[in-house]
Amino acid sequence: MKIVIVAIGRLARSPETELVKLYVERATNTGRALGLGPVEVVEVESRKPGKAAEAEALRPHLADAHVIACDERGQARSSRAFAEEIAGLRDRGVRRLVFLIGGADGLDPDLVAAANGKLAFGPQTWPHALARAMLAEQVYRAASILAGSPYHRD
After folding, report:
1. In the chain, which residues have pLDDT < 50?
2. Residue 73 belongs to a domain with what CATH number?
3. Hey, what's the torsion of the CAs at 57, 59, 64, 67, to 10 degrees?
4. By CB distance 3.0 to 4.6 Å, which of 23, 64, 101, 108 could disulfide with 55?
């Protein structure tokens, strides 16, 4: 199952960008034997400002995918529950899992409503660069949990 993080905006060279790359590579390498991956990040630019314009820029990346919107009103999950959810989607034959990260004002409500699920990183608001890094790390952690690696400790 291919896993894609689709995010509004492009990250400049930064420590967060390096973290995203590191965890995407680790997730891809660990997940390969588990039927997960490759993992990739797609950065999307909107030609106009606002949630509706950003939603239009994101929509072409959602075709034939199980979509999980990263939204503060979503459900927070433990790392183990997150891993089990990913494994369950894989086992049900989902071929493409897409996580959406919106712009500065979040995701368009219609896009969130159309998503198959919503994921929250807790009640705090996180910078987009950190949200990408945290999501990439959790995808890697999920793969390591499913692989039985000692990386995750309960």
Report:
1. none
2. 3.40.1280.10
3. 110
4. 108
